C-alpha cells in the first residue's frame, strides 16, 4: 500500500531554497541551531532518562554528516536518483547506522538487516510513529491519524488492524479465501474480454493502455471482494476514481522538499489543494456507491462482507477517538466512529493501486526478459493441462516460477519502508536516538546489494528464489517490512498479483511498444500515464470461462 516516501528537491523548490539561503543570514544563524544533529548535554540527558544523583552517560547519537543551515543535508540526497542510493553511499563513510538532518528534522538511517530488525522487532514499540508531513494530513481529511499507514501507533491502530485481519489474510479453508478465489476468476475473465477487444481494435504492433485496464480490474477485485460491488469497465465515474487512486499512489511515492522544509508550502499550494480534492472525490464516491447502500440493507448480526464488518463496529454516531481509546482494553468493545470506518475502507480499497502498479512493473520487466515470460507460460501449460482451463488461485502453490517472478519484481522495485519515528528516547546499536527522530530503513540496500544477492544482483532472475522446485526467501528479503507495523495487504498482493499475471500471460504475449521502458528506481509506482504494451493473443489460450 501505501507504502513509500521520497524527496527529490524539484527545481522550483531548489531555486527557492537557494534564494532563501542567500537572503537570510539571520535565519541561517538560528536555523544552524535547529538543523544540527542533536547534541544533548549531559544535563539534558539526565532529564531524558537517568536518575538524579547518578552521573549521566554522555548522550551519544550515531555519527553523521553535519548539515547546512536551513536545509540540513538535503543537498546530499539531491545528487542521486533516489535518496536510498545516497544513504548507501553515506553508510560507506559512517557505517551501518548514521545520523542525518533533513531540513531541521533529526533522522537516523539504518542500513544493515541486523539493525533494521532491531528497529522493527526488538524495539518495534519504541519506533511506532510516522513522519508528521503536512502532505499526509492533507491527503487524509486534515489528519494523518485517519490513515492506517501514516498514523502514529495507538490502541486504535491495533484495533483497526485486528478488524481487517481475516479479510487481509484469508486462510486457505476460509469463507474469505473462497470468495477471493471466485472474485479473481470472474474479474480476470472480464479483464481478458476487455483486453481482447482493445487488442482487436489496435493497429498491428501498436501498444495499448494496459495500465488503465489492469488498474480497473484490480479495483474491481477489491470492491467485489470487500464490498460485494463491482463496476463496468465503461463506468466513467469509477474510471475517474481508479485514476485518482493511482495519482495519489504515485504522489505518495514521491518525496517533496516541502516535507522537510514546510516554509516552502506557498510553492506547493496548488498541488496540495489538488491532493485534498482527489481524496474528497474518492470518499464521496465510496459513500455514495458503497456505504449508503450497505447501511440501508445490512444485518449487524450477519455481515456479508468487509464493509458490513466495518459498519458493524460503528458505535454511536457521536462516538469519537476518545471513546475508542477508552474501549481499547476490552477486545469485545471495539468501536469505530464514522471517520475510522470511511478511511479504513478507503485505505484498503486503495490497496488495489499498489498491486496494479506492481503488475505493470512485472510486465515492464517481462518485456525485456521474454525467456522469463516463456518459463511462466510453460508452467501455466503444465498446471492447466495444456491450457484446457484458466489459472485459478488454488494453482498458486503449484506454480513457484510465477510466484518467484512476482517476488523478483518486488525485490527490484524495492518499495521503501515508510519511515518510522521514535516515540520515546531509545537507542539502536548502542547509539542514543531521541524521541521524534525519523528513522529510514534502507531496504534498497537489502534488495539490491551484491553483498546479499551476489554479482548478478541487478539482473531480473526469478530463479534466484527457487531451490529444488520450491520458493525459498532469504530472511533479509522483507518487501513488506516486518514487526507490528508491517504491511497488512501482503497476502492480498500475493494472491491478486498471481492470478492476474498468470491470466494475462495465459492469454497474451506481452512486448514493448517503445524502445526503452523506464521503471523508476526504488519505487513500486510507475507514472499514471505509463508505457504502452503490445498484447499478442495466444492461440492456445482457454476459451472464456
Ligand atoms: C506492491 C504491493 C505492496 C507493497 C510492496 C507494500 C509494502 C508496504 C510497506 C513496506 C509498508 C510499511 C511497513 C512498515 O512501516 O514497517 C506497508 C504498510 C502498509 N500496507 Fe502495504 N504494501 C503493498 C500493498 C498493500 C495492499 C494491497 C494493502 C491493503 C490491501 C496494504 C496495506 C498496508 C497498510 C494498511 C499498511 C500500514 C500498516 C501500519 O502502519 O500499521 N499494502 N506496506
Describe the structure.
Strand 7 (466-467) and strand 8 form a beta hairpin. By secondary structure, the chain is α+β, with helices and mostly antiparallel strands. The two termini are 31 Å apart. The chain contains 20 helices and 10 strands. The radius of gyration is 24 Å and the shape is globular. It is 50% helix and 7% strand. Strands 1-2-6-3 form a 4-stranded mixed β-sheet. Strands 4-5 form a two-stranded antiparallel sheet. Helix 10 runs antiparallel to helix 15 (338-368), helix 12 (265-297) crosses helix 15 and helix 15 (338-368) packs across helix 20 (490-507). The chain has one domain (60-314, 336-537): Cytochrome p450. The site of protoporphyrin IX containing FE has 30 residues, from helix 8, helix 15 and helix 20. Protoporphyrin IX containing FE is lined by residues 1-3, 120, 148-149, 157, 161, 168, 347-348, 351, 354-355, 358, 410, 415, 417-418, 479-481, 485-489, 492-493, 524. Belongs to the cytochrome P450 family. This is Ecdysone biosynthesis protein. Its cofactor is heme. GO terms for molecular function: heme binding; iron ion binding; monooxygenase activity; oxidoreductase activity, acting on paired donors, with incorporation or reduction of molecular oxygen. Keywords: Heme, Iron, Metal-binding, Monooxygenase, Oxidoreductase.
